[in-house]
Structure formats: C-alpha cells, structure tokens
Automatic annotation (TrEMBL):
Signal peptide: none annotated. Residues 93-175 form the Peptidoglycan binding domain. Residues 1-20 are annotated as: Disordered. It comes from Sagittula salina. This is Peptidoglycan-binding protein. Coiled coil: none annotated. It holds the Pfam family PG_binding_3.
Amino acid sequence: MAEEIVAREGGYVNDPDDPGGATKYGVTIHTMRRLGLDLDGDGDVDAEDVKRISHAQAVEIYLNHYFLRPRIAELPEALQASVFDMYVNAGGNAVKILQRLLNQMGERCGVDGSIGPQTIAACARAYAMASNHMPDAYGIARRNYYFRLADQRPASRKYARTRTGGKGGWIKRAEEFISSRYHMTDAEFAARVAAWG
C-alpha cells in the first residue's frame, strides 16, 4: 500500500496553492520538520531536504507514521488502503471521515481524528453488518470531503477539477477506492462543480 501511495504522489512539487508546501512522494516539508529530517546536514529542514528524500525513506515514513502509529492497521483490512491513502493526503481528517460515517451507521464514536479502542470496535461492528458496502461508503464520504474543501477554498478547485473541466486528481484518487458503479459520470461531475464557474 505504501509503495502505491508513493507512486500516486509523484516527485517533487512546491505549489504555492498547496498548504503542504514543498513535497516529494507526498511527504511534505512540515512532516520532515516534525520528524527532524535534515537530509543535507545544514542545520535546518527546508525545500532542499525535501528534494533529497528517497523513495525508500518515503515508504518508511508512510508505514511508520501514517499506517502503524495512527493504528490504521487495526481497522478491517478492506478499509485500510483507502483510509491509509486519505491519511497521507489529509491527516486526522481521514479518521474523522470514518468516525462520522460510523455515527451515521448507528455506531457511537467520538469524532476526534484519532483511532483508539472505541473507533476500532465501532468500525469492526459496522463492517460486520455492512462489509460489502462500507469501503464504498467511506470512499464516497472521502470524495464528498474533497468537494466540500473545493467549495470552500477556490484555490483548491484545481485539485478537484482539471483545466478542461474533467475530474481532477482528488476525485480520481477517491474513486480508485470506490466500486465503478458508484463513480460519478461526466455529467454528474459537471453538475456538481457547475457553481464553481
């Protein structure tokens, strides 16, 4: 899963519209500063350090800090890849999306962005009741999160919609984890983003 995320994230970028700042393989400068990864040994963590991160280092960061430490590995296996991928992309918001979904499914669960015993148990119960639907439900909730983010922040719309009006990277990424029958048609997508102008 981590290898797929690194491939999906791509190489070095430093988009001024991206709050993540300088990023390589999806690892942001903020993450590298938090982890103290001064790869060029000059006493600070800056864009030059981001450029130096290796593929293997990115995979290790994802496994340790975005999968094992936040306890995604303790969720039902069918949900792990999507929650993991979203955690890399949105941090604790990935867990909040899951926790809100669990509450909608009738499970009592705090919405705090952290996976603990309550979330793990609620997720196991919900998955046992709706194993065929829960991965799609999470993926759809994730897609809706991206839409709401772009609704509220015009600078982020370029991540949800291409210049030619098609599905942008955020939407395509969410739909990678949703059954094709729940993918938006081009017409549905165009209607959803029409208000963006």
